[in-house]
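Researcher: Let's run the pair from yesterday's discussion. Sequence first, then tokens, for each.
Model: Starting with the first of the pair.
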Amino acid sequence: MPGKAILRDNGVRRPISITAVVDAVGALASGSAEGHLYLYDTNLAGGSTGFGTEELRTSVKRGDQILWNVLALECEAFVALADVVIDPEICEPVRKVYPGTDVAYWIGTVKTDDVESLTYELKFLVGTRTDPVTTSLTPSLVGARAAATPRKEKR
């Protein structure tokens, strides 16, 4: 049911996980994430849309925790999420590391219910490249009202 929180056994809301799957070989060859990035989240029931695209629209409300992580499409390729660039007045992600590993993720809490459609940018470290590969299309966080409104197709 849209807008319904997913609860753990102890009644605490789970974070909404956003996973970026990066085709590292394609991104390195083109120097861009465009066409080589597939975004998914765990909030389909809450109204998220655009699964498997670079324009994922994650439905959120105040208090939701957002957890961004990354996977390489090719198992032998190195990919890391270097930064999440988003309006800190709405959500201020912090880089963390899973205990006992060197695997990093970013987590932030949505600070307001006034989110219409807030685009953000993801920056990835790919292979041995020192410059981050940045999203060229725009994933976004959307409030419940905006998530319920069909998005107009680009022509």
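Model: Moving on to the second of the pair.
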Amino acid sequence: MSRGPALRSFWKRHTLGTIGIAILAIAVGCALAAPLIAPYSPTAISLLARMKPPFWLEGGSFAHPLGTDNLGRDMLSRVIYGSRISLAVGFAAVLMGAAIGTTVGILAGYFGGWIDSILSFLIDVQLSFPFTLLAIFLLATLGGGFWPIVCVLALATWVNYARVVRGQVMSIRSQDYVEAARTVGVQTRRILTRYILPNTVSSIIVVASFSMAQAILTEAALSFLGVGVDGSNPSWGTMLNDGRNYLQTAWWLTAMPGVAIALTVLGGNLCGDWLQDHFDPRLAR
């Protein structure tokens, strides 16, 4: 089958998944190529051009297609550069949360006994805390910034991986090939890395796709509350915070980053649904 018909067939069978992949690809592309495609510096101030509306409104122009903010900074450039912080935080939080949660889930599911009891207790303790209040407390104590917020978001998401992986490992450890490996004296570390972990990768990928969307949304919420990343670097959350005092006079200051957040989260969720259907055909609609 040639490439054209294959792509059309994939589009028909996975329309929503394709849309999600396209949205995420555009977001990642904007983040990687921001210095090349942004028309202005995101921090360039021009008081003579402050509060310019988008080009389709009276007083707007194509010089600033999405308008300018209260300091005359170009909104399109800030939205493009804001994707770098928001996506970087999301990716880093997903990687850290997946590493912690997968490790905990494998250990709890494979060894069982008191190890499972302790790790399950830690999971229950984590789930018992209201995350937003915990995150605000930790960030107010540690201070905002890229790595503090990544650590806080990883703290919020690792339990999702741990619970899913633990359940799968408890089923996998009783399989014949695992029992045979133990019988012939294969080291526990090799069993975990060669026989257990590869069989949980599909579930980890699905959880990661949903966690990515959750991390971006949570980062925006925390930055909006003023405890997220450094305000000197544009992120979608800090842009929402900057524009909240101008909702009635300059709605585009919050609408533009808000639309970017909504589309990116939508793309992540659509990809998550597609991956879930792909790895578990029983859920296919």
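Researcher: Give me one sentence on the second I can quote.
Model: The CA atoms of residues 139 and 148 lie 7 Å apart.
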